[in-house]
Amino acid sequence: MEHKTSNKFCYASLSHPTIKESIALHNFSILKLSVLVSEFAQQMAVAHEAFSKEIQAIISTFKRKNYELKKQRPMETPNCIFSTWEALLQETEVDAQAHLDAASLLLKNVYLPLQEVASHKNRQADMLASFRDRLDSTFNEALRQMEQLGKQNIVSRHKVSREKHKQAATDQGVCLWEKIVKAEKEYHTSFKEFASLPREPNEKEGEVVRGRLHRNHNNYILNIRATNKMADEFNKALPRVLEVRTVNLVKEILHESDD
Fold first, then answer.
1. Which of 3, 105, 121, 146 is the 20 to 30 A CA-CA neighbour of 90?
2. Has residue 73 been placed in a domain?
3. Could you tell me the superkingdom of the organism this chain comes from (predicted)?
4. Model pTM score
């Protein structure tokens, strides 16, 4: 039986932050190699095209000389030397056309695709690196807040009333909702900016608007998924907490009855 691979990932499945520089260096070297190969293909195409034009110019010159030589011959008689010479001219002309075709194929199938891929992957790598940095910052900030909340709960466990706990939970929910609303507004604003771009925008301006749209989109999705994940974990943890509280309460009642 084949096992289906899950497409869901968590923060733990991502690469460790300590190897971020190694990954960035690897991506840079790969992109640099792509650009290097594309430049090689471009220069080879230029060389093939120039070589083809030079050969065709030489062939044209010697075809004209051959035509003049034919007119000087006293009569048209079969001659193996002339036949071999004309065959050599034809084969050389075919070779020149082959070099021209090779130049066209190098530009079409190697240079242009590699240039487009390298440019796209470079922008994609920058966006992913920026998103990962923001994700790590959000994760570290969440850990710091959790540690602070844990310390506060330990210090004031017996001092805070049930109403204050409820108010703190409500405030936290309101804070999360405000973050989602803010992220949604920023996403809508950046999308309107992107939609209002002209058909042929300035390259720098278009990159800035598209980058802002991608960042706000990722931030919006991240906030929604984080809130949904927190709600799921709360729904899973609440029954267990109630179960533990119930067991402890039953034990206390039984203990009091025994006394």
1. 105
2. yes
3. Eukaryota
4. 0.49
